[in-house]
Amino acid sequence: MTEELKVAVERIGNDGAVLFTKGYINNVGGEEIANRAYELMDSGVTKLLLNLRETKIVNSIGISILIEIIEKMMDKGGKIGFCCLTPVIHKTFAIMGLAQYAKIYTDEDEARRDLALAS
Amino acid sequence: MVADIEIAAARAAGNLGRELGMSSDAIDEMTHAIIEACINAREHSGCADNRIFIRFAGTSTGDGSRIDVWVTDHGKGFDPQEARARRPAPGQVHKRGRGLQLIEAHMDEVDISTTEGGGTTIHMAKVEKKS
């Protein structure tokens, strides 16, 4: 039984993007997100929003990969935000320390405004 | 071991929780705890048989419901006190070693039976009272 993660990308201007995830963020899913995020960073994206509206389950390995993405973005001087988390994923992010370095938003509109991502 | 088998285990517990009338938030917390317990067993137990044994018991009481979950491996065992002592405080950035902490945060009761070379059983319970 596998639970494949799907990632969709919306590119916004020269320096922004939103990643929409659907499915389980485990080691494989985390790597898929990282690959897409690193491609975007390499092409100049410095403002990245991850919309997890269609992700209901994460595990600690997947979150550790998300932390690596945040660290890489911070090294580049950029910003990452997360939005539309379930209450349990929000709680898990807080325990893992992810909320210290990436802002977590209730909804996508608020995140876009704060990250200056115009649609 | 089948890929993502922890999802199948968590879904089975979730179905039991729904039958017992548990809230979606309680089921989500239990789901995440079971997943972390299975990952810990798979990644750290060093079990030769490469098997994880999972048992559920659901109880409906007059004032709510309760699900007990036991996740067992036949691996090398570990020292829970040592594991708790070396883990970072909640909220500090630390990439790994959070599994037990997450289990304890998401469940209402957690106890661990483990012996060196004799395997580990994590018993955890989700309890929800009717509001």
What does this entry show, briefly?
The complex is a heterodimer of chains A (119) and B (131). Chain A has helices spanning 27-42, 60-75, 87-96, 108-114; strands at 6-12, 16-22, 47-54, 79-83, 103-105.
Give an account of the 3D structure:
The complex is a heterodimer of chains A (119) and B (131). By secondary structure, chain A is α/β, with parallel strands linked by helices. Chain A has a single domain, classed as Transcription Regulator spoIIAA (2-Layer Sandwich). Chain A is 41% helix and 25% strand. Chain A has four helices and five strands; from the N terminus they run ββαβαβαβα. Chain A has helices at residues 27-42, 60-75, 87-96, 108-114; strands at residues 6-12, 16-22, 47-54, 79-83, 103-105. In chain A, strands 1-2-3-4-5 form a five-stranded mixed β-sheet. Chain A is globular and about 30 Å long. The model of chain A has no long low-confidence stretch (mean pLDDT 94). Chain B has 131 residues and is an alpha+beta fold. Chain B has a single domain (5-129), classed as Heat Shock Protein 90, CATH 3.30.565.10. Chain B has a four-stranded antiparallel β-sheet, with helices on one face. In chain B, α1 (5-19) runs antiparallel to α2 and α2 (24-44) runs antiparallel to α4.
